[in-house]
Amino acid sequence: MTTIWRFWSGCKGMRGLKVLVVVMGIMLVVGFAVLVAAVIGKTSRSGSMPTPTRTFANTAIDIPHGARVEAMTIAVDRLVLALALPQGDRQLVIIDLGSGVRVGTIDLHHSP
Description:
Layout: H1 2-10, H2 12-46, E1 68-74, E2 78-84, E3 90-96, E4 102-108
Antiparallel strand pairs: 1-2, 2-3, 3-4
């Protein structure tokens, strides 16, 4: 065993390799510590979910008879319903999420 140790300690190229391995090990440990600190910092800042400040009672939104909802898209404070009307046209219904009130509609017609 001592002959192997003498061999490793005697090689000048191995000294650089040893230094490189130690430096890379330190970089791995420091990088992992920074990553853990960043994750802990992000989770502690997010806190709990905010509670809604406004509520509304059940609200009925009227859609045309025979229409079907093809898609729903939500934004920050709006809900957009894409309706397929029985005549073949399309309509977008915009609803305010804060109050549950229908803000308006956009009729989409086929171009000639």
